[in-house]
Amino acid sequence: MKKHKKFLETIDKTNYLIAYKDKYYSVIGYFKFGQTKGYLILNKDGSVCARQQSIQPFKMFMVFNSYMLSFSTVGLEEINKPTGAFQDTINLLQNSLTINQRIKDKVTHVISVLEKLDKGFNRLREIYEEVKRVFNNEVKARSILDEEIVNRISDLMTEFTERQYEHLYLQIGLKETYASILNEISNKDSKDNQEKKQIKEMQKLLRYLVEDEYQNNLKNSLIDFETNIHGKQVSFFTENHEQWKEKLNSNSHEKMENDFNNDILNMLRN
């Protein structure tokens, strides 16, 4: 281990083993000033693993940790979004029907989408909790990371990513309907003070939802999902769910393979 260590680097060892094809491996990390500089894969007996043999256990380790980092950062941020705003919006929209019945079909459509979004975010929270359970009950408790666990976490990450992506397009797709409802209620000439208050609340909310800042934030969030290995952004979203999911997942897999082969593999010191 020490001969692979460079000047001023510190060494840390994972507290679980990597199980691959009936063999067990441990991972050594080399750090300098808080940054990871390299890795070394050891056989169970502590000897340094041959490079070719070490690549797959190393890849399992890096894929797993990449997913866990994503869940603990981006995933945590996603599940903590104030989704109670969906119900608040639904309540306001339902109240707006007493002001103008002409917007009933539009309001019904928006409510349907918002309910789908609310259900989708609840599923994201379930996925996040499932990932925590797998880590605590499988990896941490057994001190083993095997292919089955990596595949389970990978499947959960795939679903999480698909839902994030779909949620963005569902929200972007509501802009025109929001604008139409805003136009209708703004043209309502009311004498009733309570009704005037409801109209002002609706106008404030809908103007926020159609304004450029809000919409641009949604569109900017698509960039990471849609950018390919050549740096070009391509939209995958279509009405055919299976089609866009396949393209999205293929793009994610291609980027991960590219990163591993061109960048991450260079950190392996075997």
Explain this structure.
The protein has helices at 51-79, 84-96, 104-142, 147-172, 175-186, 193-210, 212-220, 223-226, 241-262, and strands at residues 10-13, 17-20, 23-32, 35-43, 144-145. The protein is an alpha+beta fold and 270 residues long. The longest helix is centred in the middle third of the chain and has 39 residues, at 104-142. β2 and β3 form a beta hairpin.
Short description:
With 270 residues, the protein is an alpha+beta fold. It has nine helices and five strands. Strands 1, 2, 3, 4 and 5 form a five-stranded mixed sheet that branches.
Keywords, please?
5-stranded mixed β-sheet; 9 helices; 5 strands; elongated
Overall average residue pLDDT: 90
**Relative strand content:** 5-15%
Query: Helix amount, in percent?
Result: 55-70%
Mind describing the biggest β-sheet?
5 strands, mixed
The computed structural class is alpha+beta
Query: What integer value in Å does the Rg equal?
Result: 25 Å
Number of β-strand runs: 5
Poorly predicted ranges (pLDDT <50, ≥5 residues)? none
SSE arrangement:
Layout: E1 10-13, E2 17-20, E3 23-32, E4 35-43, H1 51-79, H2 84-96, H3 104-142, E5 144-145, H4 147-172, H5 175-186, H6 193-210, H7 212-220, H8 223-226, H9 241-262
Parallel strand pairs: 2-5
Antiparallel strand pairs: 1-3, 2-3, 3-4
Helix pairs in contact: 1-3, 1-4, 2-3, 2-6, 3-4, 3-5, 5-6
